[in-house]
Structure formats: C-alpha cells, structure tokens
TrEMBL record:
GO terms for cellular component: cytosol. SUPFAM superfamilies: Formate/glycerate dehydrogenase catalytic domain-like. It comes from the Eukaryota. Keywords: Oxidoreductase. It comes from Campylorhamphus procurvoides. GO terms for molecular function: glyoxylate reductase (NADPH) activity; hydroxypyruvate reductase [NAD(P)H] activity; NAD binding. The lineage of its organism: Eukaryota, Metazoa, Chordata, Craniata, Vertebrata. Residues 22-113 form the D-isomer specific 2-hydroxyacid dehydrogenase catalytic domain. InterPro entries: D-isomer_2-hydroxyacid_DH, D-isomer_2_OHA_DH_cat_dom. This is HPPR reductase. Pfam families: 2-Hacid_dh. The keyword Oxidoreductase applies. PANTHER family: 2-HYDROXYACID DEHYDROGENASE-RELATED (PTHR10996), 2-KETOGLUCONATE REDUCTASE (PTHR10996:SF149). The gene is Hppr.
Amino acid sequence: MAKEELPGVLILDIGGTHGVLENIAALLRKHFHLITMKEFLENKEEMSKKIASIFVFECRPTIDRELLESLPNLKVIGNSGVGVDHLDLKMISSFGVKVTNTPHAVADPTADIGMALMLASARRLVEGNVLNFSG
C-alpha cells in the first residue's frame, strides 16, 4: 500500500518533549500516514480530509470541539494508556467518533514496579545505597 493510500492519523509530534516516541511512531507508520499537528495546522483544508484517526499520547493532542469540527472523516480516537478521563466522551461520541484505549498495556510493568518498590523498602536498599556511596 502506498503512503497516500494509508489512512491518516493525527499526532502531536514525533519525539521531543511531548511527541510520540520514535519506536511507537515506527509501529504507527506501518498502518497509517502520520500527520503531525504542525502539518495539520499549516494546511488544514487538505490535511483535514486525510485524517481518519487521532493517536493521543500522554493526553496530547487536546481533543476539543473545534478540532473535531475540523475533521470530517474522523472515525476513531486511540488513546495510548489506560484512562480516558481527559477525554469528553459524550462530546466525542456526538460526532460519531469512537474512542479506544490500551487498558492492559502497562499492567505488568506497573506490577513489576510495585513489587520492586516493596522489596526496596523492605530491604532498605535506598538507605544502603546512600551508605555505600557516602563513605
């Protein structure tokens, strides 16, 4: 499939402070034509027709009424993360747009960190590390 044939997905940016991580962008490129917010804002008329999806990474881009009104072919908003509290689901659904998320994507890493913190606390690893390097 040519790049032009792939459905467009709007993302804030790639890399940087708030952009989608490079490895995630590489995965998205296999199935979508990535359109950054900057590209969209520079050429709204053309880009708005190409965007079928928005990929929300770390609560960005912000989904508001103005954005939704400017995307006539938008079908789905994919949220990278568990919660969707930052999204106005009622407003989004009024545009006929579906919302998805990744509820189990971070379950194992979260459990791993929890166990590591409990073990570190029980074994006083942080205190031991400070004593090890203070002398």
